[in-house]
Target: Nicotinamide N-methyltransferase-like
Amino acid sequence: MEDSELDPATPACLHLISAFLAMEPTDCLIHFARDCGKGSITEEVQSFIWEHCINKAMNENNPPSELYAKNFLKKIIVEVESSSHDVLDRIYEQFAYYMTSLKFLFIIGFAEVLSGSRSERVVIPLQCSVNMLEGDTGCSIWPSSLFLSEFILSYPDIFSNKSCFEVGSGVGLVGISLAYVKASKVILTDGDLSTLANMKLNLDLNQLNTGTEMSQGTIQDPNLVECKYLPWESASESELHEFSPDIVLGADVIYDPLCLPHLIRVLAILLNPKKSKSHPSKDRNGDSLSKNGCTDYKQHGADYNTRPLSRRETSNDSYSSKSGNRDDNGFGPCGGKAGCGDESSNSNVVSLCDAANERPVAYLATVIRNMDTFDCFVRLANQAHLSVVDITDIWKPLDLLPYMRSYDRSSIRLFCIKFS
Model:
């Protein structure tokens, strides 16, 4: 049964409308919204906010800014979802509308600004199609893409004059960052045509020329970025060999267990371009990867739980899937952090992932939302002879987005992957 409509003349409702019009801090608005719902932001309260704040007030002569309204809606969504309640569709839709136009300002050299040194600013405008805001990650900007972009801009020498290939490129933020640091070739791929079209629009917004197919030889135009439709499950080995990248990148691509065998196959081919086309990736027991994927993960769980992340690294250098050794964040005894254990173990990681000397190499940034899914990724990587090392705290990116309080770097891990 639907709740009765709230009366805007009641003190709590009047306070909420007045606070919105006065552009009070969003925490204050949430406080008044809870008052209206007697402790929680019910669907009735959400409907009231839509009618009397967002819809009505935004149509007046001097409405609050869209940024302010967007932040308020984001707070509402987080508050309601964290209470396991339903968010009204119109709230989601309006938030998605605000989110379709974004602009990121990466402030390079921000730490030196206070001392009078010159800072460099990289402004990246982006458009986002509404469908990209859907899915199990919710309505949020992609923190792993931001982290990977900070990594690229913090260590430009790693990527400068290198051929770079991104799997699952999304809005194109990572690719734009690669073009900025003058990678010799930038190839962006995605398996969704609408996402690819949106990505090309963003490249145009950033004055980057785009191509739809592979060009022959070296790219002459430094502003040319390739866009390629590449579903992981149908990408052929010969097609992948044509790319021959120095560096492979990916942000939040470890999310669906059903996609992981295809992702691992793509990574194994890209990271081992000289591998014979007639021999598929083998696990340690000789079974082909396609026959021994995530479907039998539970059957082999006991065996896998005793394995380290990589065949080559010590347990102090790598993620350990042994459940008894995980910390609260699900990481192994060292948690992938520099300074945990002796110095030689850390130097081994740096040596293994020496970005200046070893090619090809992959860098994947991800938020580990489900440990079973990540364990599955690690297991399949081992079968495909890929070493996976957590380098989050060894190759720390600079904080180039100091104004983004909603961007939680602590939840993101950066992994270096090589064919071993």
Notes: Strands lie at 101-108, 120-127, 163-167, 185-190, 209-211, 224-229, 247-251, 361-367, 386-390, 412-419. The longest strand covers residues 101-108.
